[in-house]
Amino acid sequence: MEILALALGALLTVLCVLFVARPLLRRSTGRDEALAASGPAEDARLRLFERRDRALAALKELEFDHRTGKVSDEDYGALVGPLRREAAEALKALESEERKEREEARVDVRR
Known about the structure:
It is a single chain. The protein has four helices and no strands. The protein is mainly α. The chain starts with a helix and ends with a helix. It is flat and about 70 Å long. Helix 3 packs antiparallel against helix 4 (73-110). It has a domain at 40-111.
């Protein structure tokens, strides 16, 4: 009985490892290849999304730390302005890129 329990445990362990490692072992999909083959415009857009996400995450963390007392009112006041400006600049840049893409799409449709 003990050997059966050990064998069952080993089998379950192997199945769990294979299940967890499955994404690493699979072949690349067309989506992976499309991401790898993206052009400079798409790369720039992704960088803008990352910039926006970093700024918003930093703001969220700063707000949390201020509410929990880890950051003083003075430090919060000094840090929140630049972070808000960074987030706003990233959002404006993204809006500008999206506006350009819409205009280019309109020009393509007219042709």
